[in-house]
Each structure stands twice: as C-alpha cells, then as structure tokens.
C-alpha cells in the first residue's frame, strides 16, 4: 500500500514556522517561496554570507512571485531568521525542507543533530535528486516523518515537487507533505516506487541521452537539437504531458487510434535510439557546440522571464 493511501493525519501542517536547512541555490529559492506564502522561515547554513545571499534572492524573486500570484504583498509578511545551529532552525517548525549538498555523510550528520529536537508532528522533506529515500533514512533513528520532496530548479518558479514515502514512512505523512506544498502554490506528484532519479529527472535524462546521440552521430548540431526541442515538442509539453498529447493526436479515436497507427513507427525509433556516455570527449563536444562560456546573468534572467510567462499562462 502506498503511504498516501493511508488515512491522512488529523493535523495538517499548513501553517506555522518552516525551517530551510541549507542556504544554497535551492534552499534560498525555497525560502523565497515560503515567505511569499506568509510563512515565517528559519534558514540554517554555516556560511557567514548566508543572510546576505538569502535576502538578495528573496528580493530578486519577489517580483516573479507577485506576477505568478504567489503573493500579493509588496514585501514578505513572515519573519526570516538565519541560524548557525540547525537545532535552532528546526525548533518549533512544523515543516522542514532540507537542501544541503548531496553528500550522504553530511545529510546523515545533519539528521542526527536535528532529530532529537524536532516537533513530534513535524514533517521533514529532502530536496535530494541523486540520493534515494532509503539512503536518506539511514541517518535517522526513526525515519517515519521523513519524505522525499524533490523540486525542479528554481523551486520558487517551477511548480513541480516529487513526493515519496515508503514502508518506513508513517501513515498520512506523504499526504500531509503534499497538502503543505500545494498550500504554497506547488504541483505535486507521488513517486510510488524507488528508482534512481525519481520521475522527472529520468524523463529529461532520456531526452538528453538521445539529444547527445544525435550530436555524436552528426545528425544535427547542439544548437539545432536545442532548437528542435524548444520550438517543437517542448512547447507542447509545457501545456500537457506526452500521453495526453498523443491522445489528442489520434483524432476522434484518441490514444487507442494513435497507438494503432503509429506503433510500428515508435517501435522502429525506439530500436534505433542511442546509448551514449557522458565522458570527457562528449562533454567537450557539447560545450564547444553550445558556444557559451560561464553562466551569463542576462541569460538566466531571460530564462526566468520566459518561464514566468509560461507558468503564468499554464498554471495561473
């Protein structure tokens, strides 16, 4: 039975203090979103520059949050506390979002520090993308309140959160986490079986694998493969998922007709898909083909402006 199939807990963590453990790129973005939702947020990070970096991120994210309707305030309503001790950050928190670097010993050390002082009903969610829930649970005496809560970067802008529990997760905790995320404007899915990369990362990894194969085989340049996605199927995927889109491609007969018509074509394509390795030579070919050096702040701003418009149009 999936953890979300159990009866939900009577107490839903829809309000109260939130702790953000980790003040890196993901943690700062989460903090901006939580503040936009009116939560008071305590951020833990040992870096002395954390407070400056968090406040700069919140300030730069606020116009986007207002445009998306995630806040109607000119400035944050909740309190923002910066803590050098993780135990102080989680004190009184009803929801904890952990986003420290993805090194298992670091995460286990952090969990051991905060577990004794957590509220008995607090939910702890990890942003981990490369680690599994089972691996994360190894750092807990009682992992029943821990779930996977994996966002897409940047969390304050991209709606998706992948939530997962397993047989060691207490009944109702996954449902509680999903309700919390949805209360701050997120769209959630439940990962029902543990696989590396969860769901969305595996989907984008599959696409990138074939994109790299096409470049390696000289079928198209890096630039043209990117154009093919951004000006073709990528536009449709921003509106609906692939299976629903193919349902619409089956005319009156829907998905059943589509499968009947195109089964031979897809089977032929799937048999011909590549299996490249992301080795040094391939990485150099991609970097050279992209023709870009260091990350450009102007390019990041352009991405965020376009994403904001898409999210506003499709999730507003």
UniProtKB/TrEMBL annotation:
Keyword field: Oxidoreductase
Protein's pathway: Lipid metabolism; butanoate metabolism
Keyword flag Oxidoreductase: yes
Domain spans labelled 3-hydroxyacyl-CoA dehydrogenase NAD binding: 18-193
Residues of the 3-hydroxyacyl-CoA dehydrogenase C-terminal domain: 197-267
The keyword Oxidoreductase appears for this protein: yes
InterPro entries: 3-OHacyl-CoA_DH, 3-OHacyl-CoA_DH_NAD-bd, 3HC_DH_C, 6-PGluconate_DH-like_C_sf, 6PGD_dom2, NAD(P)-bd_dom_sf
Enzyme Commission identifier(s): 1.1.1.157
Site (Important for catalytic activity) location in chain: 150
A GO term, aspect molecular function: NAD+ binding
Any one of the GO BP annotations: fatty acid metabolic process
Record-stated family: Belongs to the 3-hydroxyacyl-CoA dehydrogenase family.
PANTHER family linked to this entry: 3-HYDROXYACYL-COA DEHYDROGENASE FAMILY PROTEIN, 3-HYDROXYBUTYRYL-COA DEHYDROGENASE
Name used for this protein in its record: 3-hydroxybutyryl-CoA dehydrogenase
Organism field: Nocardioides soli
């Amino acid at each position: 039975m999936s953890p979300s199939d159990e009866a939900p807990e009577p107490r839903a963590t829809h309000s109260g203090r939130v702790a953000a453990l980790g003040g890196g790129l993901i943690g700062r973005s989460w903090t901006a979103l939580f503040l936009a939702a009116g939560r008071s947020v305590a951020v833990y990070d040992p870096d002395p520059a954390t407070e400056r970096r968090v406040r700069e991120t919140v300030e730069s994210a606020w116009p986007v949050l207002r445009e998306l309707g995630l806040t109607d305030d000119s400035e944050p309503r909740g309190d923002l506390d910066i803590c050098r001790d993780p135990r102080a950050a989680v004190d009184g928190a009803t929801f904890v979002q952990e986003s420290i670097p993805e090194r298992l010993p670091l995460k286990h050390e952090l969990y051991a520090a905060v577990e004794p002082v957590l509220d008995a009903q607090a939910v702890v969610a990890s942003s981990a993308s490369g680690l599994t829930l089972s691996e994360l649970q190894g750092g807990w005496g009682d992992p029943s309140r821990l779930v996977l809560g994996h966002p897409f970067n940047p969390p304050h802008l991209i709606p998706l959160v992948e939530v997962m529990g397993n047989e060691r997760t207490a009944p109702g905790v996954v449902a509680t986490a999903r309700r919390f995320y949805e209360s701050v404007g997120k769209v959630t899915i439940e990962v029902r079986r543990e696989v590396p990369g969860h769901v969305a990362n595996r989907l984008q990894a599959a696409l990138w694998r074939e994109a790299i194969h096409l470049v390696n085989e000289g079928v198209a340049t890096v630039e043209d493969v990117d154009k093919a996605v951004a000006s073709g199927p990528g536009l449709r995927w921003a509106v609906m998922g692939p299976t629903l889109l193919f349902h619409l491609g089956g005319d009156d007969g829907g998905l059943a007709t589509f499968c009947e018509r195109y089964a031979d074509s897809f089977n032929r394509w799937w048999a011909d898909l590549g299996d490249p390795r992301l080795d040094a030579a391939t990485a150099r070919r991609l970097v050279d083909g992209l023709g870009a050096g260091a990350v450009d702040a102007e390019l990041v701003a352009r991405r965020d402006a376009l994403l904001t418009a898409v999210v506003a149009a499709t999730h507003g």
